[in-house]
């Protein structure tokens, strides 16, 4: 089975928006590398990445959640090929962080920030196996620059993240870290 790449990001972007199209490009690039795209399965960045991977013939996993669907009328986006349901949001996030070979973090809000923080924290303490965590774009560069303070975060922990600006750079990191071994 191919490597699984969990892609996090906001549910807000609409088709045609810059962030949706960036996620779509990322999905296409990941699929061209022969890697599996795994997202939270719904709309926005998740849909864009799923769509891009599907357009390139890639395998798409959507990890959906009963708890979310109890208060929002959602279903997996049409490009999800394999749906994995989790009972709670917490179990969904843990699944997405643990059951992958790399994580790419596209622009997002509080939920996406919590996913990035959880992945980074679990890597820091060795609770999950070493894997690339790749925040993409200016939003994360600005956020992390404001957050990272050597008084609180050790330099070796900063290097657990590989910050990039574009989907092309993210795909290059995945190729170097997962396929050049």
Query: According to CATH, what is the topology?
Result: Rossmann fold
Q: Into which percent range does the helicity of residues fall?
A: 40-55%
Main beta sheet: strand number and arrangement?
Answer: 6 strands, parallel
Characterize the overall form: globular
What structural class do helix, strand and pairing data support?
A: alpha/beta
- Alpha-carbon distance between the termini? 16 Å
Strand and helix map with partners:
Layout: E1 4-8, H1 18-32, E2 36-39, H2 45-55, E3 60-65, H3 66-71, E4 82-86, H4 89-98, E5 102-105, H5 110-124, E6 133-135, H6 138-147, H7 155-158, H8 167-179
Parallel strand pairs: 1-2, 1-5, 2-3, 3-4, 5-6
Written account of the structure:
This protein is of the alpha/beta class. It has one domain (4-179): Rossmann fold. Helix content is 46%, strand content 15%. The chain has helices spanning 18-32, 45-55, 66-71, 89-98, 110-124, 138-147, 155-158, 167-179, and strands spanning 4-8, 36-39, 60-65, 82-86, 102-105, 133-135. It has a 6-stranded parallel β-sheet, sandwiched between helices. Helix 2 (45-55) links the parallel strand 2 (36-39) and strand 3. Helix 1 packs parallel to helix 2 and helix 1 runs parallel beside helix 8. The longest helix is centred in the N-terminal third of the chain and has 15 residues, at 18-32. The chain starts with a strand and ends with a helix.
């Amino acid at each position: 089975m191919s490597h699984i790449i969990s892609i996090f990001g906001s549910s807000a972007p609409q088709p045609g928006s810059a962030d949706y199209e960036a996620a779509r490009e990322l999905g296409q690039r990941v699929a061209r590398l022969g890697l599996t795209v795994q997202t939270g399965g719904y709309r926005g960045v998740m849909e864009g990445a799923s769509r891009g991977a599907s357009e390139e013939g890639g395998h798409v996993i959507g990890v959906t959640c009963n708890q979310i669907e109890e208060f929002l009328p959602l279903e997996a986006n049409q490009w999800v090929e394999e749906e994995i349901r989790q009972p709670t949001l917490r179990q969904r996030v843990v699944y997405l962080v643990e059951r992958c070979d790399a994580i790419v973090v596209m622009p997002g809000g509080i939920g996406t920030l919590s996913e990035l923080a959880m992945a980074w924290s679990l890597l820091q303490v060795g609770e999950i196996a070493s894997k690339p965590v790749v925040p993409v774009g200016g939003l994360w560069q600005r956020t992390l620059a404001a957050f990272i303070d050597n008084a609180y975060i050790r330099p070796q922990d900063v290097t657990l993240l590989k910050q990039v600006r574009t989907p092309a750079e993210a795909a290059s990191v995945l190729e170097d870290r997962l396929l050049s071994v």
